[in-house]
Amino acid sequence: MILPSPSDAIPTSGMIPDTYFQPIPDLIESSKKLPVSGYPSKLPSPVSPPRYQSLPRPSAPITYTFTPMPSNSMLLAPPPNISGSQKPYYITVSLNCFTPTSYITSVRKQIWDGELVGDFEMGASRSGNPGTLCLRGNEYPIPDLLESQFNVFRTTWKWKVKSFALDKVLYWDDFHGGGVLTCYSSQDRDSSNMLAKFTPRTSLRRKGQPSESPNLLVTSDGHVLFDDILMSALIIERMRTAPS
Length: 244
Prior knowledge:
Strand content: 25-35%
Number of helices: 4
Largest sheet: 13 strands, antiparallel
Structural class: alpha+beta
Shape: globular
Number of strands: 13
Radius of gyration: 23 Å
């Protein structure tokens, strides 16, 4: 039997593209230019602990609207020309490539590759792994931050604000019905200590009529904890609407 020489074993350019043998560093650099949805072309700088004292604080509540965007994303933005409002938040959802039944929701400031606020990963259903949250550069199991209590007429949630500056708890409930979630600064839960209210889309679309959009109303005091309010609202709504 005649064995092939080493030169015979080397593939010709006609069989396998030359790019197959491209050096790995070059592949890494070229992959950064690919416009993959949900994955920025550059890594964000580390997020420092929140400086809540420097955040804008409007004199009245502001209603922010969730607007669908292409590629499994949406934008949370205030009405135009509102003094003291937050900049828009860009929210994307992508699959975990290793576990395709698990979804990662990422929240960034203003644009799709802007400053990272945080992300959380949860499965497609409520069963199994409860998921994780990364906020301000630190990752936690979701049950370490969010405590749920299910009752017949009201479900309540307690969200622990993890920060070097604050020791705070947000109190959410669905007492108003219709999928509306309300956030308070204390367990008293009255209008004087309301921080935010999330209202989902409740009506079906009709031809010739403007479609209803989900919104997040945030009070003046709520703006001090905006990132935590948004992240907790997204997680609670995800849990509330996920199949069992």
